[in-house]
Amino acid sequence: MGFGVSPNTPNPRDNGGGFKAPFSDLFVKYLPFQEDVQVIGVSEGEASLKKKKKVGLKLKIKVSNPSLRRLISGAIAGAVSRTCVAPLETIRTHLMVGSSGNSSTEVFNNIMQTDGWKGLFRGNLVNVIRVAPSKAIELFAFDTVNKQLSPKPGEESKIPIPASLIAGACAGVSSTLCTYPLELVKTRITIEKNMYDGIIDAFIKILQREGPAELYRGLAPSLIGVIPYAATNYFAYDTLRKVYRKVFKEEKIGNIETLLIGSLAGAISSSATFPLEVARKHMQVGALNGRPLYRNVLHALSSILEQEGIQGLYKGLGPSCMKLVPAAGISFMCYEACKRILVEKDEDA
């Protein structure tokens, strides 16, 4: 905020004439220009804001290719989210097996006594190697497809279905198609330990003996589980972000807000699609333990509802959400934060 003062104007510092400048309580900086004096007033709020901006350190890394920026951000998001929820995953696995106790607290105490903190993160490196590329492809696909299908301001929607719903489904399919062979090889190595010398050896032997199609055996059931969850998750996330901007009148969404929005989206998608997951597992079990064979997913859902009630469709939801909900929130928060750090041009830094 600037004010020009000519030589004939009473001096704001001169109180003898009874004149008090309305900006006398502001920070004033004098810049002499020959006979005139330029007085620049800056309010305390603006001054403190400028000081904060100067003091704050912002990390910016130049990555010119937008696709590469999304892939890097997605990989980092996947690695960080998986590492953060590794202890929850470890406790959940022990609870399912029943090897270290019957409650989360008991399992945690037993792991800490026997293995310490390292025990909570056992096997995390392998999971990070597996999840990082998967999450990178998933978030990249969602961002790319959603940007292409979303209408610009003032334009009508290109499709009758929400763009984020289709983009989420495409993200789930893309991620699964790209990483499914690695999942299959990992399972083969775990079960048939003596047949393979490593991941590369397993890939080569499977391709030579059984052909490329073997790498995608069992893909259909996996897609049935992935597509509804991914579509619902990303649709909920995108919708919640739009609602936040509309309610709070803010274009930029902070890290904490993104964490909460992502976690809520994860909770919504997990709850909405969990009955499908239960039905899929019942269909895989088949006729074991006296359970009837199901003709399709709808038949499985109706049979479970008839025999066990509504609670049967949500059996095990708590342990599932214990991992999925925080993982979703952390993943979205890291992804958005990384996109702000990775900039296109030097002047953005």
From TrEMBL:
What PANTHER family is this protein classified in? SOLUTE CARRIER FAMILY 25
**Annotated InterPro entries:** MCP, MCP_dom_sf, MCP_transmembrane
Keywords from the UniProt entry: Membrane, Mitochondrion, Mitochondrion inner membrane, Plastid, Plastid inner membrane, Repeat, Transmembrane, Transmembrane helix, Transport
Q: What is this protein called?
A: Mitochondrial carrier protein
SUPFAM superfamilies the UniProt entry points to? Mitochondrial carrier
Write down the Pfam families for this protein, in alphabetical order: Mito_carr
Q: Which family does it belong to?
A: Belongs to the mitochondrial carrier (TC 2.A.29) family.
- Solcar repeat boundaries on the chain: 65-148, 159-243, 253-341
The lineage, from the top, is:
Eukaryota, Viridiplantae, Streptophyta, Embryophyta, Tracheophyta
One annotated GO biological process: transmembrane transport
Task: Output the superkingdom of the source species.
Answer: Eukaryota
Annotated membrane topology: Multi-pass membrane protein
Q: What GO cellular component is one of the record's annotations? A: chloroplast inner membrane
Q: Where in the cell is it found?
A: Mitochondrion inner membrane; Plastid, Chloroplast inner membrane
